[in-house]
Amino acid sequence: MLKTENIGKELFQINTEKAFETKALEIFRFQFRHNPLYNRFVKELSVSVSSVNTVSEIPFLPIEFFKNHIVKTGSFHPEAVFSSSGTTGMATSKHYVKDLMIYQESMLAGFRRFFGKPSDYVILALLPSYLEREGSSLVYMSEKLIKMSKDSRSGFYLHDYAKLSHLLSRLKEKKQKTLLIGVTYALLDLAEQYPIQFPELILMETGGMKGKRKEMVREELHAKLKTAFDVPRVFSEYGMTELLSQAYSKGEGVFSTPPWMKVLIRDVNDPLTLLPEGQSGGINVIDLANLYSCSFIATQDLGKKISPTEFEIMGRFDNSDIRGCNLLVQ
């Protein structure tokens, strides 16, 4: 039986494939019992819980259900409700978070694994479209990292590119370790208006034009940013409203997952079939930090695995529709 009291310590100390599989199967059974929506979804697929003995046999809930259903494991009043961005009249995803400490532990443990201590950096966040609405998990994450940086120069920037550019110049002169995390279109605006040669800068884009610019392929986008900031590579963050963990790329579009998170690739024509490394398909994510929502999610992203802990993103499904995911729509 899954004991949830010390789940944070257990999840973020996972360091072997066997430990991950054991915990994933425990959480699958826990969520089947205590998440009414997931319980119904698994039953609609005619999956017998007793027959699920490996991670590859666990059913993945289509991410669309976060838009039209309440995805909760157990009965609780959420400490926070994260919501996705969307155009007027469009349904947005909602993630009901029972315990913000789990999100904070996941976010911080993941950041430390890939970048070290937040206190080593001045952390700057250029996230205008996220700051201008409520419920952004990315803003929440950035707030915590800025606070943990313990540097008075760390902070958010909305549209004041001139002020941000001036600060970047000063940080460069002082050889201060600096991380700039930004929504893609805002980083491009900054790059075009205030280019700066700052090779030591950790420049991290979070993806998305938010309707502000024409979408660009990653190679073109990163080439523009590398030229404008004179950086050798562009970092990326892979996260979303429906997840409490993040994967990171240190360049070339290759993302790495922390040990409590795993990506699997499904066949686009048969979503219950998983594909081997090197083949492209729909991205399924296991996020064990999603203890009180659903840890097993079929996303709308396309990609391929290149190693047990690394994957590439290749795009999104047209019209954001995933084949075979029309169960429970009534």
By secondary-structure content and strand pairing, the structural class works out as alpha/beta
Indicate the percent of residues in helices.
25-40%
Q: Class of the domain at 102-238 in CATH?
A: Alpha Beta
What's the CATH topology label of the domain at 102-238? Answer: Rossmann fold
Described by strand count, sense and barrel closure, the largest sheet is: 13 strands, mixed
Q: What gyration radius follows from the Cα positions, in whole Å?
A: 20 Å
* Low-pLDDT sequence parts: 320-330
Overall geometry comes to globular
Q: Would you tell me the overall average pLDDT?
A: 91
**Strand portion, in percent?**
15-25%
Number of helices: 10
Architecture (CATH level 2) name of the domain at 102-238: 3-Layer(aba) Sandwich
What's the β-strand tally? 15
- Span from first to last CA? 33 Å
What order do the SSEs take from the amino end to the carboxyl end, as H and E?
HHHEHEEHEHHEHEHEHEEEEEEEE
Keywords:
Rossmann fold; alpha/beta; 330 residues; 15 strands; disordered C terminus; 22% strand; two-stranded antiparallel ribbon; 32% helix; 10 helices; 13-stranded mixed β-sheet; globular
Give the helices and strands, then pairings.
Layout: H1 7-11, H2 17-34, H3 36-44, E1 61-62, H4 65-68, E2 80-83, E3 94-97, H5 100-115, E4 122-126, H6 128-131, H7 137-149, E5 155-157, H8 161-173, E6 178-182, H9 184-193, E7 202-205, H10 218-229, E8 235-238, E9 247-249, E10 254-256, E11 261-266, E12 274-275, E13 280-287, E14 296-307, E15 310-316
Parallel strand pairs: 1-14, 4-5, 4-6, 6-7, 7-8
Antiparallel strand pairs: 2-3, 8-9, 9-10, 10-15, 11-12, 11-13, 13-14, 14-15
